[in-house]
């Protein structure tokens, strides 16, 4: 049985170090073959081509491992086991063999029992010129029961036509129409088109369904996909939620599917999550699972460089996970049926709330998507939803969450935006807190779309960076280095700047504006009068510091604090009491207006 194929990059633009390394010339060919000269090395101990031995041993029924190599020539193959011990990588050779063939052939041999931790990896050294490597696979000779798995991929999209088309074309070619794919016939796609701008003829395929949907944010689109799968004639076992603008890997989907077919019974209700890798730095992992911590979010394994062996091995070490992002989250339908549908939070933290219900999470090397880094986006209305949804989630899931803790989070958010001179966002933070305090009846009956439209007026206007050239002496050269943060100053300097509110009452120290990313090291803004925030589209939004707005913001915040003291406890009880009403199929059919949309599809 094939467990995991050796995979090569799908195109020349992909980062090769995630797939292979070596001392050979980069002669990877279009027919997915690598040619090695004598003594050249092909190292497959990489993010995509190592084998997550410890995870397979713990979670699946596989006990023994084989490896098969598809090659022509003369090869020395060394099989390594690598694991983390006392913070360092410990490596041992568990198999060494020479393979020789004048013709293309597949040679398979036993590696032995799976180790209970770490990874297995292969290194190939050519013994003559012209050795050709076509691929290979990890497999098992164990006789195993294979579960019937069918995964519905749910994609929520809003005016991201080109991203969706790209991903669907890739899925068709590599899985949906590829009879050689391990998961062929086991994936189907439901695209929830919140903008209603996609055309059905562009997605004509028996395993791709396009449905128009009321624009109720990401959670509305993802829930619509869940509802479609629940009502389908197919017996889906899992729902895989994926962002519309993420770059997917068919190898991840293949690995996900095979792993699910072999899960031990005690882990069948676990969620399989995918790591988020930065699109602008395609070997850097943004996170692999997260912890909510009642709002003090901790992204796990952030900034791991997946081109390095040490980080590939470290990435396999398990930590407590509380949720996985819906850029890639494969949820068993047993959880959806048992725990009902998501909470209608519109935007942000819907994946967190749903993840808090899960029985457990599994993360594997090689299961990921590439996505734009979040710190390169201006938050806008998210500043409202983060505070409001923070209150709702903790009210429901953490009865001991206190008004003091809520006020602390509100204070941090408000102070952060004050320090960045983003006073409009302070208004969004405070509105989020006040709306949370309105309680369940308000939340249940609010016109979500009208509310979101109202929040739009608190966005900052972005312009092309060229529009700022010459403004107060800014040059094109001044605006080039915004992606690179200054070093964090020593503690005494930081303390002084905090106590002086980053120097807002001191005279400005420079005439030119400071150009930064939307989530800068705040100490960079010390005594700056004007800041221009540059988003992932290369557009800038300018803000100015204001002592008047600072004082006004804190006065407004303390008024909200008094409201929190008055209403918090009763409101939390209200949300907990009525929680089930917001996650029922009855509510969602009404919310999505499905009674009048059941035939509304392209």
Termini, distance in Å? 40 Å
Shape: globular
Quaternary: single chain
Quickly give the structural class.
alpha+beta
Share of residues in helices? 25-40%
- Tell me the β content: 25-35%
Low-confidence stretches: none
CATH fold-level assignment of the largest domain: Spore Coat Polysaccharide Biosynthesis Protein SpsA, Chain A
CATH class bucket of the largest domain: Alpha Beta
CATH architectural designation of the largest domain: Alpha-Beta Complex
How many whole angstroms does the radius of gyration measure?
26 Å
Continuous helix count: 15
What is the average of the pLDDT values?
93
Q: How many discrete structural domains?
A: 3
The main sheet comes to:
10 strands, mixed
Count the E strands.
Answer: 24
Structure description:
With 602 residues, the chain is of the alpha+beta class. It is built from 15 helices and 24 strands. The strands form 4 sheets. Strands 9, 10, 11, 12, 13, 14, 15, 18, 19 and 20 form a 10-stranded mixed beta sheet that branches. A hairpin with a 4-residue loop joins β23 and β24. α8 runs parallel beside α10, α9 packs across α14 and α10 packs parallel to α14. The chain is globular. The two termini are 40 Å apart.
Outline the secondary-structure elements.
Elements: E1 2-5, E2 21-22, E3 34-36, E4 41-43, H1 53-59, E5 64-85, E6 88-113, E7 119-126, E8 131-139, E9 151-157, H2 161-176, E10 187-193, E11 208-212, H3 217-230, E12 238-243, E13 247-248, H4 250-261, E14 271-278, E15 284-287, E16 290-291, E17 298-299, E18 304-305, H5 309-314, E19 328-332, H6 333-339, H7 350-355, E20 361-371, H8 382-397, H9 403-419, H10 423-437, H11 440-445, H12 448-455, E21 463-464, H13 491-499, E22 514-516, E23 530-534, E24 539-544, H14 547-582, H15 585-591
Parallel strand pairs: 9-10, 9-12, 10-11, 14-20, 22-23
Antiparallel strand pairs: 1-8, 2-4, 3-8, 4-7, 5-6, 5-7, 5-8, 12-19, 13-20, 14-15, 14-19, 15-18, 16-17, 21-24, 23-24
Helix pairs in contact: 8-9, 8-10, 8-14, 9-10, 9-14, 10-14
